[in-house]
């Protein structure tokens, strides 16, 4: 009798354990907390809802937000889905001097757009190298930049390209340069009741540009990334913009390297010196992917390779 | 300037979701937080698409939504409202395997089989967009799908074979 009770006990305990273990890996624990969703049809409705709901979070393509919500790193009680907002639907147009990209435009749209491939090749390359195919099919330029991750391909590239953001809020529309838009880790200069409508990315024929990253596998977050955008006049650099990803709390410009390059031709020595200057005094973050010193080394190598790859 | 009137947007905790999966309409009112993969598996009862990593990494849950491959574990069901979806169950027609499925079979492109549904959907999307991919393009196209048996070589072989036989059909 005793042994039967014991057996029952053992079976029951194991069953519970099994159940609990299953529970741990069960989908329920990888699901977001409950929320309610607003589905506005216009930007006016979207910013109106945001202004009335301090606890609402904007959902664009969801490729960063949804994983965070599933892990419950972040559990907003309200979401404002931009999916149906008519003014920001995927659209790319050449406006003469700049290319306009609506904020819901996906990485895939950008990577394969003829105008962008021809006039903003760094942006096409950066978009085509975001994570993997499925994520590129859903993730958006607006989400990428507003998430404010210093490792985001488009954030780095748009900084080098000197993009302008067109932002809609309850007080109307405003424009902001990308310089200064990234204010800290995962923080951008956007009010709670504002939504980025579109990006205006300037191009000119004298610009030579590229984007490069290093990551452990093709689809993982870059350990380091660099975007360079050089305007040439004759055989010398007229203007340089160099942006570094995962180099600090936000995407950063390598101002000293930029200033050094101006008026010079891109000889091997000049490129090497610019790469040194790009990382001089830099204190990149350390994490499981790379420590600070290694990351600084990667940024230097990427800056050199990027500049070397330009056909000036 | 005329004052435009907008309807007040109300928050929804439960959302009516109507999707066409493999040609059949499935409609159900679900929690806003329901993921598309759960709608496909638990509402539509189509168990071919798998949940692997559940962290947007492995691609086992890949389905085609309005012509684009997506990870259905990283999309809310309400975002698919009104969409046309293709899952692995929709690949074969008239009891005949899809050329990709046929090629996977011929090349032993699956071991445990857990990644297969997602691999097939990613390969399907790749061949739709690029019917004659190079090996490099196949590798890049399938980079969002992980095979933990590491049977990649045969998977790539299978996609090549399907492409040579016009597998984008």
From TrEMBL, chain B:
InterPro entries: 2Fe-2S-bd (IPR002888), 2Fe-2S-bd_dom_sf (IPR036884), 2Fe-2S_ferredoxin-like_sf (IPR036010), 2Fe-2S_ferredoxin-type (IPR001041), Beta-grasp_dom_sf (IPR012675), Diverse_Oxidoreductases (IPR051452). Keywords: 2Fe-2S, Iron, Iron-sulfur, Metal-binding, Oxidoreductase. The keyword Translocase does not apply. It holds the Pfam family Fer2. The keyword Iron-sulfur applies. One of its GO terms (molecular function) is oxidoreductase activity. Residues 15-91 form the 2Fe-2S ferredoxin-type domain. SUPFAM superfamilies: 2Fe-2S ferredoxin-like, CO dehydrogenase ISP C-domain like. This is 2Fe-2S ferredoxin-type domain-containing protein. It comes from Candidatus Marsarchaeota G2 archaeon ECH_B_2.
């Amino acid at each position: 009798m005793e042994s039967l009770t014991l057996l029952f006990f053992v079976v029951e305990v194991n069953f519970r354990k099994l159940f609990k273990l299953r529970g741990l890996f069960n989908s329920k624990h990888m699901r977001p907390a409950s929320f309610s969703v607003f589905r506005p049809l216009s930007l006016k409705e979207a910013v109106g809802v945001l202004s009335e709901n301090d606890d609402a979070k904007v959902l664009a393509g969801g490729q960063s937000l949804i994983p965070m919500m599933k892990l419950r790193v972040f559990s907003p009680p309200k979401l404002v889905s931009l999916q149906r907002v008519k003014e920001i639907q995927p659209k790319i147009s050449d406006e003469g001097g700049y290319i306009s990209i609506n904020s819901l435009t996906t990485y895939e749209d950008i990577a394969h757009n003829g105008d962008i491939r021809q006039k903003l090749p760094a942006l096409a390359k950066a978009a085509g190298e975001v994570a993997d195919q499925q994520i590129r099919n859903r993730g958006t330029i607006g989400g990428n930049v507003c998430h404010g991750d210093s490792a985001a391909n488009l954030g780095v590239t748009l900084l080098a390209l000197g993009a302008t953001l067109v932002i809609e809020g309850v007080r109307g529309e405003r424009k902001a340069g990308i310089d200064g838009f990234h204010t800290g880790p995962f923080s951008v200069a956007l009010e709670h009741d504002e939504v980025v409508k579109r990006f205006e990315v300037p191009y000119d024929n004298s610009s030579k540009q590229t984007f490069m990253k290093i990551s452990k596998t093709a689809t993982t977050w870059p350990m380091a990334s660099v975007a360079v955008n050089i305007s040439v006049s004759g055989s010398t650099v007229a203007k340089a913009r160099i942006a570094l990803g995962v180099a600090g709390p936000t995407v950063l410009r390598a101002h000293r390297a930029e200033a050094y390059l101006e008026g010079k031709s891109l000889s091997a020595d000049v490129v090497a010196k610019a790469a040194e200057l790009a990382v001089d005094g830099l204190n990149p973050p350390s994490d499981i992917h790379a420590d600070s010193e290694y990351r600084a080394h990667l940024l230097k190598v990427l800056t050199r390779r990027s500049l070397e790859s330009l056909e000036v | 300037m005329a004052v435009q009137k907008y309807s007040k947007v109300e928050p929804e905790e439960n959302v009516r979701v109507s999707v066409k999966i493999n040609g059949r309409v499935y409609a159900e009112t679900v929690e806003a937080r329901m993921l598309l993969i759960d709608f496909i598996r638990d509402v539509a009862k189509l168990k071919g698409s798998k949940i692997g990593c559940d962290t947007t990494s492995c691609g086992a849950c890949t389905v085609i939504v309005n012509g684009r491959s997506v990870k259905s574990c990283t999309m809310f069901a309400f975002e698919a409202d009104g969409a046309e979806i293709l899952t692995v169950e929709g690949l074969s027609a008239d009891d005949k395997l899809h050329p990709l499925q046929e090629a996977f079979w011929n090349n032993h492109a699956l071991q445990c089989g857990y990644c297969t549904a997602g691999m097939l959907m990613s390969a399907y999307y790749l061949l739709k967009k690029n019917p004659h991919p190079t090996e490099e393009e196949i590798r890049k196209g399938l980079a969002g799908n992980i095979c933990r048996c590491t049977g990649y070589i045969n998977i790539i072989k299978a996609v090549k074979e399907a492409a040579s036989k016009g597998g984008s059909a």
